[in-house]
Specification:
LivM-like; two-stranded antiparallel ribbon; single chain; membrane; mainly alpha; transmembrane
């Protein structure tokens, strides 16, 4: 049993529990840095895709996981970040300037949209954001002179500190670009949760009435959360466009929004780890199904048959299983296993029993 003995208040708000946890994260980072030298370009591309999805999951986690506002429209902000980044590059701005501007502009637009949308609660907010995602699809088609319409656009090579980076031509450099952005955003996210603003997000999530009673401006907190969430999602969209190479209005469909929400639920709502665990499922599930079909075809001596909707069907089954048997997601299950070994033999079965998270006054909202 490992016990952390705290002797100072600052130990409660530091990013890492102790030096042991920090060393594990540093070791994981070193493994990721060494990955391009160990795996081939195909699996390196899949790993890059996982980090892009993780970045998008972090964006949605700010709003849904830590502020409690359901959103089914984050594909719209992925599209905004992607198109703004490419359009600015085409206008002559270097990538290192266009990329952060894309995130900031997406965040500002998200905050403007949030003013009327966040007056809604629960399923009504989800429907409003879903309508937003559908509307952006039509806007992309109507603004063809800037977006390319149905024909779409092609992502150019980008210059990062004098190094030309292309998804297909230089996969190793592109991986390090995505990894660097993900690490920076994750560190910023960790520090956000330690700040008064991050704590106000969690207070609004747990109970808006109680948060308001403590002096938190609920409307302002929701708007800032929406802006930060959309800004991070815009950065993910910019990288997603560079990763795909070519994109149009169908690239960022409503299905992406639903997939993002399911991803953070499976990974574990309300935790940074959950965004990464969910991204691993989303990133590697298609390849796992493809390899499995080839293996089954090889064993039974038959040709593999493409089954429409198989990927989303299995993804939906995984989601249902987690909702029924492990609502805390993959990270929640890992947390229980880790706690069991840390507290053994004093672990209690009902330690993680679900509690009511809303007041009676909020159940009808």
């Amino acid at each position: 049993m490992r016990i952390i003995f705290k002797t100072d208040y600052m130990q409660d708000i530091r990013p890492w529990k102790d030096g042991y946890q920090l060393s594990l994260y540093l070791l994981l980072l070193l493994v990721m840095i060494a990955a391009p030298f160990v795996i081939d370009d195909f699996y390196l591309g899949e790993l890059t895709n996982v980090f892009v999805w993780a970045l998008a999951g972090l964006g949605l986690m700010v709003l849904t996981g830590h502020t409690g506002q359901a959103s089914l429209g984050h594909a719209a902000f992925l599209a905004l970040g992607c198109y703004i980044n490419i359009i600015l590059i085409e206008q002559g701005l270097p990538f290192m300037v266009a990329f952060p501007i894309a995130g900031v502009l997406t965040g500002v637009i998200g905050m403007v949209v949030a003013v009327p949308a966040l007056r809604l609660h629960g399923i009504y907010l989800a429907i409003a954001t879903l309508a937003m995602s559908i509307l952006v699809d039509d806007i992309i088609v109507l603004t063809e002179p800037w977006t390319g319409g149905v024909g779409g656009k092609y992502a150019p090579s980008v210059n990062v500190f004098g190094v030309m980076i292309d998804r297909w031509g230089t996969p190793r450099e592109f991986f390090y670009l995505v990894l660097g952005v993900t690490v920076i955003v994750t560190l910023g996210y960790i520090n956000l949760l330690r700040s008064p603003l991050g704590r106000s997000f969690i207070a609004v999530r747990d109970s808006e009435v109680s948060a308001q009673a403590m002096g938190i401006d609920v409307a302002r907190t929701k708007a800032i959360s929406f802006a930060i969430s959309c800004g991070i999602t815009g950065l993910a969209g910019a990288l997603m466009g560079l990763f795909s190479g070519a994109f149009n209005n169908e690239t960022f469909s409503v299905v992406i929004s639903i997939q993002l929400l399911m991803m953070i639920v499976i990974g574990g709502l309300g935790s940074i780890h959950g965004a990464f665990f969910g991204a691993i499922v989303v990133g590697f599930l298609p390849q796992f199904l493809s390899i499995s079909k080839e293996w089954v075809g090889g064993v039974f001596g038959s040709n593999t048959v493409a089954i429409p909707g198989l990927e989303f069907g299995i993804f939906g089954m995984i989601l249902i299983m987690f909702i029924l048997f492990e609502p805390m997601g993959i990270y929640g299950r890992w947390l229980k296993i880790r706690t069991f070994f840390e507290l053994f033999p004093f672990y209690r079965k009902d330690m993680f029993k679900r509690q009511k998270s809303y007041l009676k006054t909020e159940r009808l909202r």
